[in-house]
Specification:
Largest sheet: 8 strands, mixed
CATH architecture: 3-Layer(aba) Sandwich
Order of helices and strands: EEHEHHEEHEHEEEE
CATH topology: Dihydrofolate Reductase, subunit A
Oligomer: single chain
Structural class: alpha/beta
Length: 187
């Protein structure tokens, strides 16, 4: 069965965005570091064939196109992202040729998608969708890039989680920039 993998960048104090929606803390200046991150992300993208979005996240990023003068690595990343099947979880579906909207029976539909043959699924977010998936027991793996910054305020990754989740550490990867990649499986 396919796994649902929550793959996100988060600050040391657990925020996915700053108080004004900023994500500038997520960038890295070191070119060698960026190449290592790009290689890891390429490997991740090769292991999935589906992306789950909340509506706001999809509206922001689901059809994003890099600028014409964007670096080749960025263009390659978005080409890889746009090659995946996309599902958007929303009470306000739109017509889209690029994504299928799921508006009801979320758990049953996710379990049906997980049982299809193919690669794993990236739970992209947003925060509300992450909470819903966690509360329904639908997240199999957590792949979190912990950035060495404390914001003190912003949008937290985890809110309103109803049940305890025990996790098993699968892998830790550290980088020169101080970003630590933690991979946990649910138990």
């Amino acid at each position: 069965m396919k796994k649902v993998i929550l793959n996100l960048a988060v600050t040391l104090d657990g925020f996915v965005e700053g108080p004004n929606g900023e994500i500038d803390w997520c960038s890295m200046d070191n070119e060698q570091e960026n190449q290592a991150v790009d290689a890891h992300f390429d490997q991740f993208l090769d292991g999935i064939d589906t992306i789950f979005y909340g509506r706001v996240s999809y509206d922001m990023w689901g059809e994003h196109q890099p600028a014409e003068n964007a670096p080749p690595a960025e263009k390659k990343l978005w080409k890889g992202v746009h090659a995946k099947r996309k599902y958007v979880f929303s009470n306000k579906p739109k017509n889209s040729s690029n994504a299928k909207y799921i508006t009801s029976n979320i758990k049953d539909q996710v379990l049906a998608i997980k049982s299809q043959p193919g690669k794993d699924i990236w739970l992209y977010g947003g925060a509300g969708l992450v909470t819903s998936f966690m509360n329904m027991g639908l997240v199999d793996t957590f792949l979190l890039a912990i950035h060495p910054v404390v914001l003190g305020a912003g949008k937290p990754l985890f809110t309103d989680i109803k049940n305890r989740m025990d996790l098993k550490l699968k892998q830790v990867t550290k980088s020169e920039s101080g970003v630590i990649l933690l991979e946990y499986d649910t138990i």
